[in-house]
Specification:
By secondary structure, this protein is of the alpha+beta class. It is built from 7 helices and 10 strands. The radius of gyration is 19 Å and the shape is globular.
Amino acid sequence: MHPLASEVTCRGGIARAHTIQRGGGLSRISKEGHVGKLQVKRYSGAIRGDSVERTLVGLRSASTFTGFCGLHDTQTFAPLETRPFSCSQQQVFLLAYRALCRELYYLRVHAELAPVYREGDRGSPLDEQVMLQLYMTRKESETERLTGRLGTLRSKCDNMLLGRDFSEVRFYAVMLAECPDIMCNGIHEPIVDFEGNYLSSIGRQGAPTRWMHLSLIATDEGGAAVFSWWAGDTTEEIINTLDALSDDELPHAIVRYAFEFFGNVYFSPLWWDGLTPSTQERLAARSVSGMPPFYESARAHNCLVDDGMRAVRWEVSGRQWIRD
């Protein structure tokens, strides 16, 4: 997926690239070489929190995709992998670029495998077959839409990468005093803020697509939650409502955001096992929120508003901005 990839330039075979750092990242929250992840047990009627189970994933497989050759993976992400995290615009860009490439990679995989998925309902009750086919129709349409929009963003980011010009990167970083129990890397189209408001351009004819990236990572000093977007993007609206929260409230807002909107989320098995059953169920429900037509209710406009859940004990040690 590197913009210069070819039979001539690629070396080292296809790499199993970790979108969340394995060494010093996932390894720090692992138990016996495994990290936790939530996944749906089986599509059967409406998906609820109890339709989701915690699984254990080996460190070699967690958060990987095969989108780069060994040479391009090593060269492209060296500033992120070989240097302490300093919140430079280049490092933040590379976190977002990884998320973007992973998302496009899996969109392509899904498109290729869609005919196979459609056959997965054989032998199931009729109502389940109808549900799966309806889901696949909507999923294929959404895949096509996202592939086009992310492809446009990818072209922009490829030019930034090749030109080594990261001046358009904007970010908000929450620095943590300890390694977070949860790690995440993803990109999506935000629709609501942390006060329960729909973002201003949602539904407006001709409104530009906006993107938000989130990475929850380990650092030498502890950890960081890094939100990023691009210059001129009105995504900053959502960050203003996040920054308005106190240091005590901020970690819990980040957890809500990660589980609500991203699938590439891994966590410490020890942390998960220490949660109350009620908290586990609420996080599981967030992980399948907005998955039509299975989930019982559509994603609520106030899904990021404080719901009283306190799943982590992170201490905020600082905040960093680069904004328009």
